[in-house]
């Protein structure tokens, strides 16, 4: 699976630009604020139908423009896949695959698997479990379409239950039958989500350990933990037991939306005791494990988007990671950096096809192609 060509119109700081990519390595260089990250976000948008950085499509429209349009030509084996997205400001987004409109965004997720790593992902390590739950949900949703549907339905019922609790506080009237019906739905969807989280966490945990040890030469021990109310029996009964607390707080205080994921380094929480370099390495290990899991479950190599890869990494780990992701087991990779010299393939000793792009103020200033005769090998 790789992206052959991309065209962007009025997306973020881009006016209009068209690019053709290498099926292996693509280096995107330029000063801060020129649009390197926006280019990766455009690729992510076509893959999953949404921005990596914000939920509002309006924020992706170029200033003083009324729409954005993107189109990508992908290739999966001998199968061409054309993805097109058009969003008129304030209107309805239209996403199509091979000229067939996607009626629901959930139908598109997983068609073009993708993994992105950005500096803001440090929140996965440093912040609370909300970010880590989103990471797990994003991973499983690209693998299992039914998981995504169950997750959306759970969140819909959760919103209905919270709205009912707020309404009870306003009207001073309690509807036990309504709560009972909502509790049964929360339990049913929650159990299915929980079982798949357990299943895939058991698969991804050894992959996280494998990549971390690869980068650190096995000098540190790591582990992941998962705590959920569904580890205990009879969630429906628990909801009945906490209903008075929920009524006072006007929100649902128990459920899979409160699940806790955490990461440990030498039996200490990474977020508290890890150095900047260790956190960056752990994050890389986490995302490459995500890539590996999606690849094995989907039988597709996800696109790998690495924004500001070398920030807070020492030279040893930077070279080790770069050599790894340029190997034959990986597919198409996009890497951004402010310094062209750090992406000099010949200095690292790589022997693979690549393209290098220089971006200036939302425009492609120059493009260098090397070894394109070897593209088909990947």
How would you describe what is shown here?
This protein is α/β, with parallel strands linked by helices. It has 2 domains: 1-113 and 300-378, Rossmann fold, CATH 3.40.50; 121-299, Glutathione S-transferase Yfyf (Class Pi), Chain A, domain 2 (Up-down Bundle). Helices cover 42% and strands 23% of the residues. It is built from 12 helices and 15 strands. The strands form 3 sheets. A 6-stranded antiparallel beta sheet has the order 2-1-4-5-6-7, with helices on one face. The radius of gyration is 22 Å and the shape is globular. It starts with a strand and ends in an 8-residue tail after the last strand.
Quote the average pLDDT.
89
User: What is the 3D form?
Assistant: globular
Strand % is: 15-25%
Low-confidence stretches: 372-378
**Distance N terminus to C terminus?**
9 Å
Order of helices and strands: EEEHEEEEHEHHHHEHHEEHHEHEHEE
CATH class of the largest domain equals Alpha Beta
CATH superfamily caption of the largest domain = P-loop containing nucleotide triphosphate hydrolases
**Main beta-sheet annotation:** 6 strands, antiparallel
| Annotation, overall tally of beta strands | 15
The gyration radius over C-alpha positions equals 22 Å
CATH architecture descriptor of the largest domain: 3-Layer(aba) Sandwich
What is the percent of helical residues? Answer: 40-55%
């Amino acid at each position: 699976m790789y992206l052959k060509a991309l065209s962007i119109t009025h997306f973020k700081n881009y006016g209009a630009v068209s690019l053709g990519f290498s099926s292996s390595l693509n280096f995107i260089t330029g000063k801060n604020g020129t649009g390197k990250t926006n280019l990766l976000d455009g690729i992510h948008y076509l893959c999953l139908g949404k921005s990596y950085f914000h939920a509002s499509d309006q924020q992706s429209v170029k200033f003083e423009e009324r729409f954005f349009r993107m189109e990508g030509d992908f290739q999966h084996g001998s199968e061409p896949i054309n993805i097109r997205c058009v969003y008129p400001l304030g209107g309805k987004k239209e996403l199509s695959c091979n000229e067939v409109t996607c009626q629901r965004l959930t139908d598109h997720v997983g068609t073009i698997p993708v993994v992105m790593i950005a500096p803001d992902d440090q929140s996965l390590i440093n912040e609370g479990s909300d970010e880590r739950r989103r990471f797990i949900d994003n991973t499983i949703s690209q693998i299992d379409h039914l998981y995504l549907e169950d997750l959306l339905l759970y969140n819909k019922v959760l919103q209905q239950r919270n709205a009912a609790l707020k309404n009870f506080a306003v009207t001073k009237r309690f509807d036990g039958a309504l709560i009972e019906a909502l509790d049964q739905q929360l339990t049913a969807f929650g159990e299915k989500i929980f079982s798949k989280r357990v299943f895939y966490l058991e698969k991804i945990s050894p992959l996280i350990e494998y990549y971390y040890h690869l980068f650190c030469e096995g000098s540190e021990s790591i582990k992941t933990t998962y705590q959920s109310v569904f580890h205990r029996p009879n969630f429906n009964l628990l909801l009945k037991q906490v209903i008075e607390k929920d009524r006072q707080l006007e929100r649902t205080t128990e459920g899979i939306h409160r699940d806790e994921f955490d990461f440990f380094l030498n039996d200490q929480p990474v977020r508290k005791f890890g150095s900047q370099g260790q956190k960056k390495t752990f994050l890389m290990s986490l995302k490459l494990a995500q890539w590996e899991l999606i690849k094995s479950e989907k039988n597709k190599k996800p696109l790998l988007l690495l924004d500001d890869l070398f920030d807070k990494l020492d030279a040893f780990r930077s070279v080790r990671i770069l050599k790894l992701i340029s190997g034959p087991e990986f597919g198409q990779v996009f890497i951004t950096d402010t310094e062209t010299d750090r992406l000099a393939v010949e200095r690292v000793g790589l022997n693979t096809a690549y393209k290098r792009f220089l971006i200036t103020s939302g425009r492609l200033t120059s493009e260098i192609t090397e070894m394109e005769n070897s593209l088909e090998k990947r």
